[in-house]
Amino acid sequence: MDKFNNMQVFCRIVELGTFTAVAKEQQCSAMMISKYMAQLEASLGVVLLNRTTRTISLTSAGEAYYQRSRQLLDDLANLEAATAEMGDQVKGLLKISAPIDFGGMYMVPVIEQFLRKYPAVKVLMTLDNKPQNLRGGSFDISLLVTDTLDQGVVARKIAVTELGTYASPAYLAANGCPQTLEELSAHRCLHYVDTPHGDYWVFNAGSEVKKIKAEWLLSSNNGRALCQAAALGMGIVRAPKLSVAPYLQNGELVEILRNYQRPGLAVYATYLQRRYYPAKLTAFVEFLLQYFER
């Protein structure tokens, strides 16, 4: 029995939530994952997981074993990274998650310049609007454009962007320009999904925070698609200024409802807190900070 392998499998079950998800990640059968767990529990003489047909939960022994096992696995990963990067050479595979719009519009030039400076690094970038579980090990760093942050991660602010409300001159000429939040109910809205606020648009009305449920005509997780729809006169979009900047510059979109402006959204580079940070991670974070400051 490979107890180290079984410990890894147990931790991934806790982090991914199902045997099936771990089996898919490990490219084996769910029956094999169940076998690994049975071997681990038999060797320890305790039950680590409560299993029902629909849910998996930790026993008290399982909770304690997970915390210590995860620490051991993290320490081993840190040891391997430290040994591989002796001499502080910046090298290896750097795995990045970034929002679809921000990553697509801004990250490729950043990565091009970073790789020119550090040619021994390879970058794997995944574009996804959903927050990533960094403890799962799939990513070294996750970029977020948000006004809310989860606890337990290091978050470095690399940029700030306004969250504004925009429409095309043609749309406003045909439908009128809303002057108050209440008037939005008479307009077609283009709604960005996968935000912490769900179906609501959030505004500042003086010292009060107001949430307006958008009556959307088109909804998408791709801000560039929504901005294009707004530029074509399909409706009003609420988006970070980083996303609409090209449309503002050429006059295809104009900003409205500035009296209800929210504080700026921050762009964060987030990563797990640990005792040792690989050189590739620290170099990339510092490069990001300097790049966006310029």
UniProtKB/TrEMBL annotation:
CDD domains tied to this protein: PBP2_CrgA_like (cd08422)
GO MF annotation, one: sequence-specific DNA binding
Keywords, ordered alphabetically: DNA-binding, Transcription, Transcription regulation
Transcription in keyword set: yes
Keyword presence, Transcription: yes
InterPro entries assigned: LysR-type_TF_proteobact-type (IPR058163), LysR_HTH_N (IPR000847), LysR_subst-bd (IPR005119), WH-like_DNA-bd_sf (IPR036388), WH_DNA-bd_sf (IPR036390)
Coiled coil: none
Pfam families named in the record: HTH_1, LysR_substrate
Positions of the HTH lysR-type domain: 1-59
Source superkingdom: Bacteria
GO biological processes: DNA-templated transcription
PROSITE patterns: HTH_LYSR (PS50931)
Family: Belongs to the LysR transcriptional regulatory family.
Protein name, entry field: LysR family transcriptional regulator
Species per Swiss-Prot/TrEMBL record: Methylomonas paludis
